[in-house]
């Protein structure tokens, strides 16, 4: 089969719903390993009470994710997307499995050695995240907006799913011997299975869906070189005599610098969304919310509520009047979220758990909703190769915001007794 003409989108293309479901699962797999680490934070606080695990592990994760993403975004037009995403999902699978192996090898003991081992595995999570998240968002940016929305919903679903599973395993094993460890190991085993499922879906199922083949063929005609391996996996070969034409079209695309400058407001939007969210979640919720009636369940409940509202909010832009498409409207909404910082501070100091739950819900609601609005609006009006490049640049800004947020999260410890 040779590449088809990439003209107007056909009235009917098979596989749209299946593609959306696979995007959702691939999104879930992109963060389920990392969210597993966050959600079993109570287990790691039990093993390493003096090491601030939620803050330290997040701070270890982000430089690897951001550094790798800088390299990948700069070279995105030369990188085979299929190989990139496969490496990412395989690395997620192997790293999650290694967490189980490490815990078994050390018999669940604490100490500096096991903590350093966990930090090394978390670094590999960061590398895998840069491979997968940038690769998938870039790839889906030249397809339908619903595909990006489904992928982003899957990212949030990983948090909601891991939180639900963690609450279930904590309840099931709470009164048994070594129950916290048993629950955490079962949890990691489930996460490992999901990563293996993503490897299979991306390798063998997703590239062969008709609607996916159509958009990748169209991107190839517009000069994209990143989709060639995926097209080959779907049984589509490019015509050899199109080589010079493709090179000319590739040279016609806007440069990364031009794309960034044209979309600097969207880049800033994503940076600011995640600076705020990660300066509060998860470190502040674990260490700065005080003692309440829920006891050891309290931080787990807060994490679960954040993840649940983050998931729900990623479907809200599907309702047209709830989707924010104005560029000025987006920046105003995003800047107004910074009022949450004093709100969280005074609620942690003077408020009860009901007010904290309300604030956490609003934090998750605005995080997911605004993320989807930005990432579905930005790629419109560009050619396939440009949309892929822009998707990578926006993910880079998102990761930069996360890194800045987890760094600023340490400021909450200032003035706290025995903080360091």
Low-confidence sequence ranges: 1-7
So how many helices? 18
Mean pLDDT: 84
Kindly state the number of beta strands: 0
Give, in order, the helices and strands.
Answer: HHHHHHHHHHHHHHHHHH
- Helicity range: over 70%
Notes on the structure:
With 420 residues, the chain is mainly alpha-helical. The chain contains 18 helices and no strands. The chain has helices spanning 16-39, 41-47, 53-74, 81-105, 112-140, 145-173, 179-205, 210-221, 228-233, 243-252, 256-262, 264-280, 283-287, 297-313, 327-336, 340-350, 353-377, 384-408. The longest helix is centred in the first third of the chain and has 29 residues, at 112-140. It starts with 15 loop residues before the first helix and ends in a 12-residue tail after the last helix. The relative contact order is 0.16. Residues 1-7 have low confidence and may be disordered.
Question: Which descriptors would you attach to this protein?
Answer:
single chain, 18 helices, globular
Question: What is the compact description of this entry?
Answer:
The protein has 420 residues and is an all-alpha fold. The chain has helices at 16-39, 41-47, 53-74, 81-105, 112-140, 145-173, 179-205, 210-221, 228-233, 243-252, 256-262, 264-280, 283-287, 297-313, 327-336, 340-350, 353-377, 384-408.
Give the topology, please.
Blueprint: H1 16-39, H2 41-47, H3 53-74, H4 81-105, H5 112-140, H6 145-173, H7 179-205, H8 210-221, H9 228-233, H10 243-252, H11 256-262, H12 264-280, H13 283-287, H14 297-313, H15 327-336, H16 340-350, H17 353-377, H18 384-408
């Amino acid at each position: 089969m040779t590449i088809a003409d990439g003209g107007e989108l056909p009235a009917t293309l098979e596989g749209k719903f299946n593609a959306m479901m696979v995007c959702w699962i691939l999104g879930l797999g992109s963060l389920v390993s990392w969210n597993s680490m966050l959600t079993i934070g109570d287990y790691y606080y039990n093993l390493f009470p003096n090491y601030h695990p939620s803050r330290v592990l997040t701070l270890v994760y982000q430089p690897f994710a951001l550094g790798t993403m800088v390299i990948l975004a700069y070279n995105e037009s030369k990188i085979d997307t299929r190989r990139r995403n496969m490496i990412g999902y395989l690395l997620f699978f192997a790293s999650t499995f290694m967490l189980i192996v490490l815990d078994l090898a050390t018999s669940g003991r604490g100490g500096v050695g096991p903590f350093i081992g966990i930090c090394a595995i978390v670094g590999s999570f960061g590398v895998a995240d840069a491979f997968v998240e940038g690769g998938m968002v870039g790839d889906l940016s030249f397809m339908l907006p619903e595909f990006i929305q489904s992928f982003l919903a899957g990212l949030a679903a990983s948090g909601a799913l891991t939180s639900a599973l963690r609450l279930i395993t904590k309840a099931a094993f709470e009164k048994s011997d070594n129950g916290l460890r048993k629950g955490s190991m079962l949890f990691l085993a489930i996460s490992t299975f999901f990563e293996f499922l993503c490897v299979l879906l991306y390798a063998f199922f997703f590239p062969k869906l008709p609607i996916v083949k159509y958009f990748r063929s169209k991107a190839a005609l517009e000069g994209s070189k990143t989709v060639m391996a995926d097209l080959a996996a779907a049984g589509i070969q490019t015509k050899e005599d199109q080589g010079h034409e493709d090179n000319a079209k590739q040279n016609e695309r806007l440069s990364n610098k031009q794309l960034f400058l044209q979309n600097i407001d969207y880049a800033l939007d994503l940076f600011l969304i995640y600076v705020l969210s990660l300066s509060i979640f998860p470190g502040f919720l674990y260490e700065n919310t005080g003692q309440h009636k829920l006891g050891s369940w309290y931080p787990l409940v807060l994490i679960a509520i954040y993840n649940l509202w983050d998931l729900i909010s990623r479907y809200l832009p599907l309702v047209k009047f709830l989707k924010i498409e104005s560029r000025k409207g987006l920046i105003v909404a995003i800047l107004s979220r910074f009022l949450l910082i004093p709100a969280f501070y005074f609620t942690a100091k003077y408020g009860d758990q009901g007010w904290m739950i309300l604030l956490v819900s609003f934090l998750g609601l605005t995080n997911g909703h605004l993320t989807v609005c930005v990432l579905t609006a930005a790629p419109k009006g560009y050619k396939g190769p440009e949309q892929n490049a822009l998707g990578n640049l926006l993910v880079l800004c998102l990761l930069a915001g996360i890194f800045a947020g987890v760094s600023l999260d340490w400021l909450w410890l200032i003035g706290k007794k025995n903080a360091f």
